[in-house]
Amino acid sequence: MSPLYYIHNPVDPFVDTKFGFNMALNACSQYPDIHIDTYGTNISQILFQYWPHNSIPNVATFKPNDKGNVIYTYNSSYPDISVLQNEPVGIQTITDEAETYLFGFHLYYMIPEDAKKLVDYLYQGSITLTPHTLIEPDTLKVIQANSLFPVPLQIYLGDFGDTLSVTDIDPASVKINGILSPATIETIPSYPDFATDILLCTLPLRDFILYYGWVFGTSLRSYTISGNFTDNNPFQYEGHFTLIGHRPGDFNLDNKIDITDLVATVSYFYENGTAPEIIESIDMNFDNQLDITDLIAMINYFFSG
User: Fold this and answer.
1) What is the pLDDT of residues 221-245, one digit of tens each?
2) CATH of 132-244 among 3.40.1130, 3.40.1000, 2.60.40, 1.10.10
3) Gyration radius of the chain over CA positions
4) By the 8 A CB rule, do 21 and 84 touch?
């Protein structure tokens, strides 16, 4: 039923105000946070015309009984808070006969490293440390590249286990996405979702966003942090973040959609007018081609809501 909300309500499909599940947030510190993995999810592109690209449909929430212990809660996508925010999506129940777990989400569409941590804990009673990286903020807008007051971008790396530590990394070798050098690098003792010391890299937000070029719509993107240990052995780890790009329909790329965009689009299709600087700017249905369906979608946007 969830996708029907977007079909029958004139809501921008990239701003999810009703559902927007993007992670299961641990309610007990021993459990790992579990994020969705849009890249690894086999969901119809037709559905994504009516559903945010950085969210997953069909997540169940629960009302536990007096024996149920809430271990995960619903966390929703930027920019709006879901009506289901903080509702239970993971329940542990312990009785004299058994210990059971109930989850309102599927592990197959969550980031594999996160899912493995949960499985490890359920079977072993402890989490096997796996090196991983996080980024803050974890949701970025392309227009922030031109902000007069940019916030610093911070990338964290840690949890190497017993044999290695972030102190074994050569700071001068560290690169983001293979080419970007952090402005500062430091070691910090703790950060949420890490169990050991962490390498903290800070770099200009503008440089990081511009690396991804022209982006339209909202998508889950990957980044890498790589370098060498002091023994010259290389490392590379991948993380993910949500990138909110330009809105489809912004023909003239002025970060707003108005009648001038519609006029320019009509002129392009019917009057041999100037093509958009970036073709993707008027690919309204994300099918990687420009045709009359894109113009119809834009007209509907202006006159049907």
Assistant:
1) 999 999 999 999 999 999 999 988 8
2) 2.60.40
3) 22
4) yes
Query: Residue 279: which pLDDT band, with cuts at 50, 70 and 90?
Result: confident
Amino acid letter, 230: T
Q: What pLDDT, on a 0 to 100 scale, did the predictor assign at position 188?
A: 93
Checking if the pLDDT of 142 tops 80, the result is: yes
SS3 48: helix
Instruction: Give pLDDT tens digits for 164-205.
Output: 889 999 999 999 999 999 999 999 988 877 878 899 999 999
Q: Map out the domains of the chain as residue ranges.
A: 2-124, 132-244, 259-303
Residue 270 backbone phi and psi in degrees, to 5: -115, -15
pLDDT for 300 beyond 50: yes
Torsion angles phi and psi, residue 173, rounded to 5: -90, -10
Give the Cα separation of 282 and 289 in Å (integer): 9
Rounded to a whole number of angstroms, the distance between the first and last alpha carbons of the chain is 21
Tokens, residue 294 = 């894109």
Q: Within its chain, how far is the Cα of 125 from the centroid?
A: 29
Give the whole-angstrom CA distance, residue 154 versus residue 202: 5
- Tens-place pLDDT, residues 66-88: 888 999 999 886 555 677 888 99
Rounded CA-CA distance 65/85 in Å is 19
Answer whether 120's CB lies under 8 Å from 128's CB: yes
CA dihedral 142, 146, 147, 151 (to 10 degrees): 60
Give dist(CA 157, CA 154) in Å, integer. Answer: 10
